[in-house]
Structures are given as C-alpha cells and as structure tokens.
Design goal:
globular, single chain, Methane Monooxygenase Hydroxylase, Chain G, domain 1, 7-stranded mixed beta sheet, 17 helices, Carb_kinase_FGGY, transferase, alpha/beta, Nucleotidyltransferase, domain 5, FGGY carbohydrate kinase domain-containing protein, 21 strands, FGGY_C, kinase
Length: about 525
C-alpha cells in the first residue's frame, strides 16, 4: 500500500494524419497508449500521378477520432495535444476557405498529397538552377517537396488558384492553425519541405530564381514568416471552436507539429535501451537510425554536426530532435509496393479465401506459407533465382531518380500461391536491400550507425523485420507501443504543456522498447 496519495496520471492527445486515415491516441505520461481510434479519409486520383485530398474531410476525421479517445476521461487530466501529418500541401484563400488544386475547379479538393508527382517538369527546372539551398536536400530536390508543387500551381492554375491563394500550408501546420487560429509554421515542415534554413530563414534569391518571386513580396506571409520549434506551444492553446469540435478542454496546450515520419522517429529513437545488450547502449543517440515504415519508408539519422549525404535529405537543424542535425533517407513506395505486388498477382483471390478461412491476415498467411515451402533452408534462400528492383515509384534515396521504374527478374510460367509467396518475399528483400543502400551511403558520408529502431505498419510484419536485420546486419529494436507515430505526436503535446523540461526528457520517458530482433549473420550472404 502507498503511504502517500499518488498524483493523478497526466494524459496527452496525439493526432496523426496518414495517407489514407486519421488516427488519434490518448497517451499517458509513461508513453502507454490508453485509447486509440482511426477513421479513413478520402483520396482522389483524377489522373495518373495526381493525388488530392480535402482539408475539411481531414479535419472532420481529426475531430471524430479525438472525441472517441477522450470519451469518459476526466478533462482536467488532459494536458496537451500534438499533431503530425503527411507533408501534403494545403491551399486556402485569404479568408481561409479551400481553393481547388485541380483543373475541374473542385474547391473541396484543396490538398496536393505528398506522393503526388504532377510537378516533374517543375522540379527538373528547379534542380537545373543548382542553387545553394539544394545542398540541404541531398543536392537534388524531390518532386514530393513543396516548391515544385507551388510552381505547378502558378503555371497551371494561375487565375483559379495562384492569384486567389491567401495561404499555402504544409498539412501539419494547417492542423495547428485549425486548432489555435495562429498561422505559425513548424521548423520541421519549412526546413524539410520548403527550403527554409534554421540559420538564415528564407533565401529570396532561390524563390526569385525559380519564378516564385511573388512569395517574397509580402515577406513570405503566404508560406510562413513565424516559425516555431516542434513541441513549442502555439498561441494561447486550443481555441473555443476547435475545442468544441475535438471534444477537448479550451485553452489546453497545442504543440508546433511534425511531419508524420518525424513523429515516428521522435516516438522511438530516444528510448532507454538499458539491459537489452545493444551496441547503442551508453552511446549517443547519433548511433541510431529510426525507420518509419508504412505506405512509404523514411530513415532518420541524427548528428551533432551537419553531415551532407549525397541523395539523402538534410542536414536539417532541429527538425526532429532539438539541437541535432537530421538526415532523412527514404523509399517512396514500400507498404504500397508490397500491397501492389500481392494484390496484382493472379493467385491473390486464392490467397484471400485461404487467409479468411484460417482467420489470419493475408500477410500472416503468406509468412506461414513460406515457412511451409522452405524445407530445410532458411526462408531467405527461397528467392535465390527471383529478384525485384523496387523503384516502381522512382527512387528517393540515395539515387534521387524519379524516372527509375520497377523490375522483376526470374519469372516463370507458374502462377500459384507458391509463386505469389516468393514474389512477396523477394519484394520485402528488395526493400531491405534498399535500406542497406541508404545506410551504407549515410555511413560513407560520416554517420556511425549501429542499431535500427523500427515503427509503423510494416514493423508489425515479422518477416519484414527479420529481413531488415539479416540484410543490414544490424539489430532491430521494436517499440513497446506499435503506434510510435501517435506516441511521437503525444510527446509534442507533453512538451508544449510544460510537464517535461525538454523533448529529450519526454522521449526517454515516453518512448519504450518492446522487442529486439537480432540479425542472423549466417543468412547475410
């Protein structure tokens, strides 16, 4: 029995806007997810490589899931809220009403998604300038960043959108504006996706050189001239209207937000690893890479001094962990690629019905099917004659080549479930080899990486995790909470509330280790 009365537990809300759904979690001060809810959001694909969403649809989903997770909880114990989201581009007019980012004039479709590749010719012209700001994005800007998308809007929707636009938000910043009424931007979004530098701010010469001099005129009002560090409190907290919409107390702290992958990194990379016999124990956090694997994958490594890695984004100062430089590698299609390969196979209906009959997910079923057919050899050896080149959506890192396509070598006329299982395995191996390529490039530039920290949907797949350990030769740490991205968002809210002295302190307390997967060095070859 406790002799003194314990303080009531404090809670924080993390809200995560992914590509296809919005999720919210109620997280306590020890990093435990107490309640969790999700809701799908709509994606429009009016033509190939054009992906659009609706900011109204996204906000409505944020409100719906948040109300669910706080239902029945003593409101006085909810201390802060943090948002993370995909780095999609939100366009609103001067009255903050949505503006169409499409030729059809559909105003509710006012978001160009992160994975939209419509601005290929624009990004080629931007890269041809070889402007100095490009050295902070691995030397080559991605079509998924915001400057090419802004240029596309100016060149294709001059009257209907560009001239009427009042504000261009990164989605994480749109959410903090919606909650507080303050148009401040997060250092994370503007540094990683808009070419802002933490020491010099916006570079007028870049915007003029690429033909977007209009943004410079009004002192960058449209894209943000008030920038906060992730986790800093925004304005006076939650405004009355947003509080009512979200079912949260008015005035609670709202944090400057993060891009979703960076929130995942925050949720795992700072965890206390004592007693797990890991090479990163008693080593600085710079020996770790956080890998956030969902629809796409991001590889987050931090350093005390700036490291320029060819083909890898960054170095970005304080974009994830305050005071440290971030490098960010990535693969544009990972979960999406596995899904594409499996669902497009002629044996998929058979897989679906067999998985349903055994009450397993299709991926659990495929993993056990591989165990059945592997005989005495390790499962990885099944694909000795089958190889996938995984750049079906171009290569983000380290080759930075949008034009690359996917490839499968070693196909036969067989079309059964065994072949589907093998191409699924080969795809996972290809993705893990892509990760190894990124890590080797980072290490050649000066990073010292000993341990991988995985989170996101694919980290729930044991085959995906083991292949990453075997192929990279590094131990993989899985967090106790599968929803590390939501824990990362909640860490922001905890920081904004003032309950922790720093993000690092909140990361160490709220990020917790679940399981460690060691590489099988015999399988590495």
């Amino acid at each position: 029995m406790h002799s003194k009365k314990q303080d009531p537990v404090k809670y924080y809300v993390g809200i995560d806007v992914g590509s296809a759904s919005v999720r919210a979690a109620l997280v306590d001060e020890f990093g435990t997810v107490v309640a969790h809810a999700d809701q799908p959001i709509q994606i429009w694909e009016p033509q190939p490589d054009h992906y659009e969403q609706s900011s109204a649809d996204i906000w409505a989903a944020c409100c719906s899931v948040t109300k669910k997770v706080v239902c029945g909880v003593d409101a006085s114990r909810i201390r802060g809220v943090g948002f993370d989201a995909t780095c999609s581009l939100v366009v609103v007019d001067k009255e903050f009403q949505p503006l169409a980012v499409n030729c059809e004039g559909q105003n509710h479709r006012n978001v160009i998604m992160w994975m939209d590749h419509r601005a290929v010719s624009q990004v080629e012209r931007i890269n041809a300038t070889q402007h100095r700001v490009l050295s902070y994005v691995g030397g080559v800007m991605s079509v998924e960043m915001q400057p090419p998308k802004l240029l596309w809007i100016k060149e294709n929707l001059q009257e209907s959108c560009w001239e009427k636009a009042g504000y261009f938000f990164d989605l994480p910043d749109f959410l903090s504006w919606k909650a507080t009424g303050v148009t401040a931007r997060s250092l994370c979004t503007v540094v990683c996706k808009w070419t802002y530098t933490s020491d010099g701010g916006w570079d007028d010469s870049f915007w003029k050189m690429i033909g977007l001099e209009d943004l410079v005129k009004d002192k960058y009002e449209k894209i943000g001239n008030h920038v906060l560090s992730p986790g800093e409190p925004v304005g006076k907290g939650l405004m009355p209207e947003a509080a009512k919409d979200l079912g949260l107390p008015e005035g609670i702290a709202v944090a400057a937000s993060l891009i979703d992958a960076h929130a995942g990194g925050l949720g795992v990379i700072g965890a206390d690893v004592k007693g797990h016999n890991l090479p990163c124990e008693n080593q600085p956090i710079t020996s770790r890479v956080a890998m956030i694997c969902g629809t796409s994958s991001c590889h987050m490594g931090v350093s005390e001094t700036p490291i320029f890695v060819p083909g890898v984004w960054g170095p970005y100062f304080s974009a994830m962990v305050p005071g440290l430089w971030l490098n960010e590698g990535g693969q544009s299609a990972t979960g999406k690629l596995i899904d594409h390969v499996v669902r497009g196979h002629v044996a998929f209906p058979e897989l679906q019905s067999k998985a349903a009959a055994s009450a397993h997910s299709i991926y659990t079923y495929l993993n056990s099917h591989l165990d059945l057919i592997k005989k005495s050899l390790p499962v990885g050896f099944l694909t000795v004659d089958l190889h996938v080149w995984p750049d079906f959506h171009g290569n983000r890192s380290p080759l930075t080549d949008l034009t690359l396509k996917g490839m499968v070598v070693g196909l036969t006329l067989s079309r059964g479930l065994d072949e589907l299982a093998l191409i699924y395995l080969a795809t996972i191996q290809a993705i893990a080899l892509g990760t190894r390529h990124i890590l080797e490039t980072m290490q050649a530039a000066g990073h010292h990486i000993t341990t991988l920290f995985l989170c996101g949907g694919l980290s729930k797949n044991p085959l995906f995790v083991q292949m990453h350990a075997d192929i990279t030769g590094k131990p993989v740490v899985l967090s106790k909470e599968v929803e590390s991205v939501l824990v990362g968002a909640a860490i922001l809210g905890a920081c904004a509330s003032g309950d922790f002295a720093s993000i690092q302190e909140a990361m160490a307390r709220m990020g917790r280790i679940g399981r460690v997967v060691q590489p099988n060095h015999e399988h590495r070859r």
